[in-house]
Known about the structure:
The chain is an all-alpha fold. It has one domain (about 5-50). Helix content is about 60%, strand content about 0%.
Amino acid sequence: xxxxxxxxVAFSINVNRYIFEGDLDGALRLIGDYMKKNKxxxxxxxxxxxxxxxxxxxxxxxxx
Length: 64
């Protein structure tokens, strides 16, 4: 497996970890950083589809 593939796998694992722990902001931050680094963009339709209003405000499950 190439270095680029290993790097993307590590990125994916970290995003999934944030999502699993209920930290949507952390996952979105990682995704945003990745997109900036790789000069990627998202359409406005994609951005507005992110369910930011679904946040419960509680602690991630691993902290409880």
